[in-house]
Amino acid sequence: HMGTVWNCGKSRKSNMSSEKKSKVERPLTELLKISEKGCFEMSKFVQDVYKRLNEDRKLMKEKADNSFFTIADALVQVMVRTMFPSDKFREFCGEESPSNINIEKAPYSVDGMELPPDLSESFKKSFAEIKKLAKSVDGEAYKELGVFVDPIDGTREFCTGLGSQCSICIGFTRDKLPVAGIVFRPIPLEEGSKLTYMAGCKQEGYTNGVLDYSDGKAQESLLTSNGSISKFTDALIKELDFVRYKAGGCGNKMLLLLEGKGTAYIQDRGVSRWDTCAAQAVIEAMGGVLSKLTTIQSNRSIESYQYKVSDVNLDLNPEAHLTKYNAKNKEMGGRNPAPKVTGENVLPYSNVCGLFGLKTKDKDLANRILDAIQKVQKKVSPQYS
What we know:
This protein has about 375 residues and is of the alpha+beta class. About 35% of the residues lie in helices and about 20% in strands. α3 packs antiparallel against α4 and α4 runs parallel beside α5. The longest helix is centred in the first third of the chain and has 27 residues. The protein is globular and about 60 Å long.
């Protein structure tokens, strides 16, 4: 009973009225080309910070939920915000909310973390190029669009010597859905090798990027985080007879999926909207799917998260639990047993309905995986959080 359901998903009604006023022929494609240039510029600075992180731990902090935060996260977000300013877009949502940013003059600093002189020079250069790019963004074409940004997705990897697994994620939304995006790895696998990325917009039929494709000999695998996985995910891997492919960063895992290195990306523990927005736009442009896991699990249908600036979470899941990552109040998130998620206690941008990603809509593969999900969940439920 999957046929039609698998091909649907929510219909995308687009409001094109605002775009008629502008002279831009393919506005989203234009935006992605600017984003791509911006990512190459920002990567120079990101690489410089990355090289310094090992010897200079003052460039990073731990946040309340033990996740990492670096001066690069904050300054990349500032640069993206500069490229796509509020007077040209409807709304902006970024992962970082640092309180004290000084980018007026050197020494540049964020929340008391100071950039050393050589890194200040590097930032100044990248920032100057970004300001030039900002001027090329049409003033009228994007008034209906939102921008969702994870300046460095996979900051933990970035801080622990696994920088090639992190990515800059910039997603553009209309009517609460991702319509265009770029996922860009700023740190090459080896010094001097090509940077890999993918940009895509399904509506305008645009994809562009450089991927490191697998040789096709890889065993079928399920992409998972580097950390621990739930009993459900573990049971699913065994049921499918897949291998587990550990990798950091949501954006990176989407690129690994597109590179053919992982067969599927299924997660019951959530990430956040800024992790999935760009990735979803890219994967859909490439002919794949990124959906909530809850609807796949309950009735084998594809449904997108809703992407909108909001004080409350627009995609609640009564089965999900609070954790230190998704709770508004960190103390509540640390309780045992963990409280259930409600509109009041959960962060607005936490994805508490899980994730299901495939790079193609191959029905045989999809059916095989969906059958396995149905079978496994009878024994062990997804651990939504």
